[in-house]
Design a protein that fits this description.
The complex is a heterodimer.
Chain A: E1 8-12, H1 22-26, E2 32-34, E3 40-42, H2 53-57, E4 63-67, H3 83-97
Antiparallel strand pairs in A: 1-4, 2-3
Chain B: H1 2-11, H2 28-42, E1 49-53, E2 68-71, H3 77-87, E3 92-98, H4 99-105, H5 107-116, E4 121-126, E5 129-130, E6 136-137, H6 161-168, E7 172-177, H7 181-193, E8 198-203, H8 207-211, H9 219-229, H10 233-238, H11 241-246, E9 251-255, H12 261-272
Parallel strand pairs in B: 1-2, 1-3, 3-4, 4-8, 7-8
Antiparallel strand pairs in B: 5-6, 7-9
Helix pairs in contact in B: 1-2, 2-7, 4-5, 5-6
Classes of the chains: A alpha+beta, B alpha/beta.
Chain lengths: 98, 276
């Protein structure tokens, strides 16, 4: 599961994040931190070793690690998008067409 | 890893207003994710799984997942589950209960479900307190710790859920914590696949009600405490008796092969009909 540094990207779904700080506290390479607004911020994305701790220990399913080469899931085809952001994307699309 | 998040979203009911109701730092969300991952890894169809829950914070878990779900009366989740399993033994019935729901209000039902060895899996989410109703001390509050009803420290001894289930005759008993999420996945799968009554006790911290009164400044402190004080069973046995008192052993405590009540019942029906 673990891979070399700089091979993965980290995405936080801010709408779902409650800022408990579990991912930031237990991240082995200190990629994440809690910002002043009480949400998780990705500080050093290049340091991520893709251990997957944050993803399976996030109580709110608000964080995702994916390979760097892949297209970011939240900008891809709307049907492939994580449903967490799908509704937001629909809203943006509808407001643009009007 | 992104597939894990995608997989979880396949099972959630997105009409149910996310993010979910659990407080920041509550472990119940981790259990929800783990439950979904383990059911997916077993390859069970959504229609073959029944999730039963009682009252309490843990009772919100079935609301968010797209299985057959039922939210029952306080403490009686196991009785509903017994009925469902006997009526349709094909279904995999998983009961999600809190510590108060399982051992205080529904203690009687837990004992007898374990004695009958009905093929139901019980997940007991132990947060050491009545979280939803305002932090009253429950039967699992550790001796000496504080809560709204024990401002000078709990005097009574606490229940050991796994030991109760083991003594009552459950065929699979295990304990884990939310800090060991991948171990929790495999334990839940094993408990669901095991014939007979399976019980998995999951230590899930409640910072809002328990942690703040017991010198845990943040919820992260509670998770660090869980990580430190829950050694695997092999390591726990090597500790000195003084250290054993403070530690909580995790792992599989009981695993015996015996058929569940629903199998015995099916066999009896076949015999009475004269079939072989």
């Amino acid at each position: 599961m673990a891979s070399k540094k700089g091979e993965s990207r980290v995405k936080v779904f801010l709408d779902w994040c409650k800022g408990c700080g579990i991912c930031a506290a237990f991240c082995p390479s200190k990629v994440l931190s809690v910002d002043k607004q009480g949400k998780i911020r990705v500080d050093h994305e290049d340091e991520c070793i893709n251990c997957g701790f944050c993803e399976i220990h996030c109580p709110d399913f608000a964080i995702m690690v994916y390979p760097r080469e892949e297209r970011p899931p939240f900008e891809a085809n709307i049907d492939d998008v994580a449903p967490a952001t799908r509704e937001e994307l629909h809203k943006i699309r509808n407001s643009n067409s009007k | 890893m992104a597939k894990v998040t995608q997989l979880i979203h396949n099972y959630l009911r997105h009409s149910k207003r996310f993010p979910h109701v659990f407080c920041p730092g509550c472990g119940h969300g981790i259990v929800l994710g783990s439950l979904i991952r383990s059911i997916d890894s077993m390859g069970l169809a959504k229609d073959d799984v029944v999730l039963v829950a009682g009252i309490g914070c843990s009772g919100r878990i079935p609301v968010y997942v797209d299985f057959n779900t039922i939210h029952t009366t306080h403490g009686r989740a196991l009785t509903f589950a017994t009925g469902i399993k006997l009526a349709n033994p094909r279904l995999k019935v998983i009961v999600v209960m809190g510590d108060g729901d399982a051992l205080s209000i529904g203690g009687n039902h837990l004992i007898h479900a374990a004695r009958r060895n009905i093929g139901v899996t019980a997940l007991v989410l132990n947060n050491h307190i009545y979280g939803m109703t305002g932090g009253q001390s429950s039967c699992t509050t550790p001796t000496g710790s504080f809560s709204t009803t024990t401002p000078f420290g709990q005097l009574e001894d606490e229940f050991d859920i796994s030991r109760v289930a083991k003594v009552c005759g459950a065929s699979f008993v295990a304990r884990t914590t939310v800090m060991q999420a991948s171990a929790m996945d495999s334990l839940i799968s094993e408990a669901v696949m095991h014939p007979g009554f399976g019980l998995v006790e999951i230590l899930s911290p409640c910072h809002t009600q328990y942690g703040r009164k017991n010198r845990f400044k943040t919820c992260v402190d509670m998770y660090k405490w869980l990580q430190k004080s829950s050694p695997p069973l092999e390591k726990y046995r090597e500790l000195t008796p003084e250290k054993q008192e403070k530690a909580i052993a995790t792992g599989i405590f009981e695993k015996k092969d015996c058929e569940g009540l629903e199998e015995k019942y099916a066999r009896m029906r076949r015999n009475l009909r004269g079939e072989r």
